[in-house]
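#struct-pred
JK: can someone run the complex with FE3-S4 cluster? inputs below
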Amino acid sequence: MTAKKLYLRSFGCQMNDYDSARIVDLMREKCGYERLDAPEQADLVVIVTCSIREKAQEKTFSDLGRIREIKKERPDMMIAVGGCVASQEGKNILRRAPWVDVVFGPQTLHRLPALLEKRLQTGRSQVDVTFPEIEKFDHLPAPRCEGATAFVSVMEGCSKYCSYCVVPYTRGEEISRPLMDVLVECAQLAAQGVKEITLLGQNVNAYQGKGVDGKEVGFALLLEYVSEIAGIERIRYTTSHPKEFSDRLIAAYGKLPKLANHVHLPVQSGSDTILTAMKRGYTHDWYLDRIAKLRAVRPDICIATDFIVGFPGETQEDFDETMRLIEEVGFDASFSFVYSKRPGTPAADLPDDTPQEVKLKRLQHLQAVIEANANKIANAMLGQVERCLVFDHARRGEGMLSARTDNNRVVNFVGDASLIGQMVDVRITEVFPHSLGGELVQKEG
Ligand code: SAH
Ligand code: SF4
Ligand code: F3S
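RT: done, structure tokens with the ligand placed:
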């Protein structure tokens, strides 16, 4: 019998990427599905969706429209929709796209085989977007990983309820995996050759998992444990919340050399008025104080962030405060977008009279300043030797490899394919807009 074929497409954040990888593992091990790169020959199409901004959500429905055309030719093909749009819309997905067979949520993905089965038996589309605590991890096969880097989800959901954001509604409240489960997963990955682990969660530093003695373990201690695992050479995490960026976590940067010299700490705005309206729970100065303390233990750490530009009521003065913060921190990168109104969130009811063109102009200005700063940081790396993890062949250039520096930059250099998956020293020799060029530093002896 030939294997059944699965096509999966994932939108949105790394939480979705992680869930998608687990779905592929699950469908292969439980139901014998093989993954395809295109939907045309698929027996099952899975779309893992994102609803963080309106545009992201609309992609789901345009994708579903295209898949419908394929289904017309292949009536037995099954279509399943997961992720945050599924979670938020539930049954409404079937109203807009009645050709969908299964709707499942971020916490029910382990039930996908049973939902598909029920769909076949009953002839009716199935919807399950409940939040059954954290049971999914107990029903998923051990992760399989081929590269030297891997993601490990340590907590799910968010209990912060920022006034603009859908995540608490789509992913549920914060809930952490027990410490041992996380450590076992990391050790399994290390045994498969993984050298760099990225710990994942919507507010990963809010981690509070049950330790072996039943007492709760916080994020800083979790990092210490992961750091002890043989074979793991570098640890990253995303996304962290400034409010939970504790003194203990900062102290970990002094103690744990495996902790990458790069942190993603979304600030959203530099204006205290806007931060309050967003319900972020910190001020401009508080954020600066966290960064100053962090730099006291790791002077050369790179800091990336997220911004929402044009939040309802944002004045030019508020925006100037954001630009001042950018100047003060010297960010290395940002994910920045114009505010998108999300139905059902408190901010959706706020008056918003800033014209869209003004918001776009602000965004462009902000991005240009951060880009210039990123360039400055890159230029300062010229001539330095960086410890890098080689992750693949470079996309361009015969015999070229791609590696990632400690501060999260891609550097391309000439090297033998056998180095893929290894840590190497590379001297930085060139700076390009979004990458670096370098040469391998041969170890003596
Ligand atoms: N938990 C993380 C971020 C998760 S969402 C944090 O709080 O920092 C990822 C990013 O999407 C956010 O940092 C924010 O910048 C952006 N985002 C969320 N809701 C948005 C909205 N309604 N409009 C525009 N951007 C939004
Ligand atoms: Fe959304 Fe705020 Fe939670 Fe981040 S902390 S996921 S922005 S509600
Ligand atoms: Fe999008 Fe959900 Fe992630 S809304 S950003 S996929 S948590």
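RT: quick notes.
The pocket of iron/sulfur cluster (ligand 2) is lined by residues 158, 160-162, 165, 167-168, 202-203, 241 (CB under 6 Å).
The CA atoms of residues 88 and 170 lie 5 Å apart.
JK: thanks, will look after standup
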